[in-house]
Amino acid sequence: MKKNGYKKNRFRILIFTVIACLLLGGTYIYSQFYDFTSHTFRELERGSKSNKREQMISPLKDNISILIIGEDTSETRENGDGTNARSDALLLATINKQDTAINLVSIPRDTRMYIPIKDKEDKIAHAHAFGGIEGTIDTVENFLDVPVDYYIKFNFDSFLSLIDTIGGIDVDVPVTFTEQDSQDKAGAIHLEKGHQHLSGEQALALTRTRKIDNDFFRGQRQQLVIEAIGKKVLSLNSIGKMNDILDEVGPHTSTNLSAKNILTIASTLMGKNIEFNKQQIKCNDEYINGIYYAIPDIENVKEISREINQVLQEK
Hints:
Elements: H1 2-40, E1 64-71, E2 87-96, E3 101-106, E4 112-115, E5 120-123, H2 125-144, E6 150-154, H3 156-165, E7 169-173, E8 177-179, E9 189-191, E10 194-198, H4 200-208, H5 215-234, H6 242-249, E11 253-255, H7 259-269, E12 275-280, E13 283-288, E14 291-296, H8 298-313
Parallel strand pairs: 1-6, 3-12
Antiparallel strand pairs: 1-2, 2-3, 4-5, 6-11, 7-10, 8-9, 13-14
Helix pairs in contact: 1-7, 3-4, 3-6, 4-5
Domain Cell envelope-related transcriptional attenuator: 86-234
Keywords: Membrane, Signal-anchor, Transmembrane, Transmembrane helix
InterPro entries: LytR/CpsA/Psr_CW_biosynth (IPR050922), LytR_CpsA_psr (IPR004474)
């Protein structure tokens, strides 16, 4: 009888130990995410709800949109006058929880549209220079008539650190080119067309190069790199492995995603067979007063707007 009681006590102790380890592990992981967001979290002046949303949303139960802003700066290229740099890459991602799909819409940096903060039409890249994150989000929401729930802004340094920390990415490079590196050294990066493994410097060059064609193809290359990063990070299949990534990208990143938001999104997508659907705003080249602009196709913009809103309204 005592022997059975002893076994029961051992079993209880074992169960308690396992539960304690899980709780401590979960607490540690959450603390890492909390430490990351304590340095990167930047709430928007509007608050946590887009004006184009009727109710508050949550990544736990709703499909969401995230504006990815690549800022044209690094430690060697910071603006010395305290002003904002232009956005060098702009992609709106919508996450569909039902079919674990991520839709990426690329907006060329020279796209001409109405910028509310300046009350005039200009290149979308200038929205960040005029009004920072707030000005960029307002402009994109007005242009596409969709809510931007969250944003992630990064610069060259965080981009390089992220890719190198995850061990590089595999990309089918669509074109042979030569480009400067992150230190602006001309001709430092040369890539041949074809499938290959890229370092952070090589991937950055692929997203930046534009003189070989135009912003439309540049946007496609940016989507390829973002997709490759997403697949590599999500293939880690462990939230705990995110710690190194957070440590590296944190100093050069800002977002209004909380630690809880990030954990929810990561746990929803990690280990899943994610489908990436890529689109780009169609534009026509035009010079106005001697300045080049990409003039958006209005019907294409309306179509993309309908598709995004449809995804975001699904339950």
